[in-house]
Amino acid sequence: MSVRRIVPGKKRVAILISGRGSNMQALIQAAKHADYPAEIVGVFSNKSDAPGLEYARANGVPTATRSHKDFASREAFDAVIDATLEDWEVDYVCLAGFMRIFSNGFARKWTGRMLNIHPSLLPKYKGLHPHQQALDDGATVHGCTVHWVIPELDDGPAILQAEVPILPGDTAETLAERTLAAEHRIYPEALRMLASGEIAPL
């Protein structure tokens, strides 16, 4: 029988990933600091071979996986995620490259407790390929946004943003690389602000 470890005063956070989870890595590293107000209590993936799972395990974070392909409906799969989060007794959920759209019921239940990071200065360039969208638009400034997750895709209120200049000769790849560095900086900061009570929940 396992004994659940609870750190007094720290918010319990789960992270959802589908791939390498580089933003997950940034959150796990931030949470290692004694004065960080949140602890990462679990990482869930819809892909059992997601590289980020091995990183989580190597850093002592419990993991769980279930494939969405095993379920007949979005709602059925979301129910498994929900049960996992409840079992981990999480306060907040952070999405880090989780490539699934939630059912409205799941999104509504976790509204005010679920965060995402999107690689654009929302409300600009929602959805896929935001870096290419910015380049095609002739933008001179790009960036990233930590925002609340609500049923509408990439439409929740922003918590924190960071600007990234678009440089002459930028490609979607080079712009994505610079934007990712900003993501790794502001996602842990946004979670810190929320977990410490510096900003109010949605």
TrEMBL record:
Keyword check for Transferase: yes
Domain of life: Bacteria
Keywords carried by this UniProt record: Purine biosynthesis, Transferase
UniProt site positions, description: Raises pKa of active site His: D154
Swiss-Prot/TrEMBL catalytic activity: N(1)-(5-phospho-beta-D-ribosyl)glycinamide + (6R)-10-formyltetrahydrofolate = N(2)-formyl-N(1)-(5-phospho-beta-D-ribosyl)glycinamide + (6S)-5,6,7,8-tetrahydrofolate + H(+)
EC assignment: 2.1.2.2
Residues bound to N(1)-(5-phospho-beta-D-ribosyl)glycinamide: G21, S22, N23
Domain Formyl transferase N-terminal: 11-191
The protein's role, per its UniProt record: Catalyzes the transfer of a formyl group from 10-formyltetrahydrofolate to 5-phospho-ribosyl-glycinamide (GAR), producing 5-phospho-ribosyl-N-formylglycinamide (FGAR) and tetrahydrofolate.
Assigned protein family: Belongs to the GART family.
HAMAP family: PurN
NCBIfam families registered for this protein in UniProt: PurN (TIGR00639)
Protein's name according to its UniProt entry: Phosphoribosylglycinamide formyltransferase
Source organism: Devosia yakushimensis
